[in-house]
Amino acid sequence: MIEEAEVGVDEFDVDTGDETGRLIRPYAMTGGRTVVDSDIGLETQIQASTRASHHLGAYRWETAKMVELVQSPMALVEVAARMEIPIGVARVLVADLVADGAVVLHVPAKTQNFASLLERVLDGVRNL
């Protein structure tokens, strides 16, 4: 006997999304764009501006979620991980929000060399 639930349901008719459970592909979030004009590093801190909170309802769900995440500064790589999207997609979304004035970027100063820091740590450990 055929159960009622099985009638007319093909195993290929059910869209389960990708392995993350997301039904929207990441490239659809960016309109197919993969490259941005500015260089936003993985360690760049992103923070919502005051303008973002006033216009939160005007953004699509993924950018609105991103603005909510970065109420306090958060690195680009952390934003991508929490939203479960690829780094490239997060970078494009952040660039759009920067252009709109919704977020500001805090780029950490580049350090010349970590060797001196490591030497000081090693000296400190030896002195213990």
List the helices and strands and how they pair.
Blueprint: H1 26-29, E1 45-48, H2 50-54, H3 61-69, E2 74-75, H4 76-83, H5 87-100, E3 103-106, H6 115-126
Antiparallel strand pairs: 1-2, 1-3
Helix pairs in contact: 4-5
Separation of the first and last Cα atoms: 77 Å
The number of strands is 3
What is the overall silhouette?
elongated
Quickly give the structural class. Answer: mainly alpha
Description:
This protein has 128 residues and is mostly helical. It is elongated, with a radius of gyration of 22 Å. Helix content is 41%, strand content 8%. The chain has helices spanning 26-29, 50-54, 61-69, 76-83, 87-100, 115-126; strands at residues 45-48, 74-75, 103-106. The protein has a domain at 36-110.
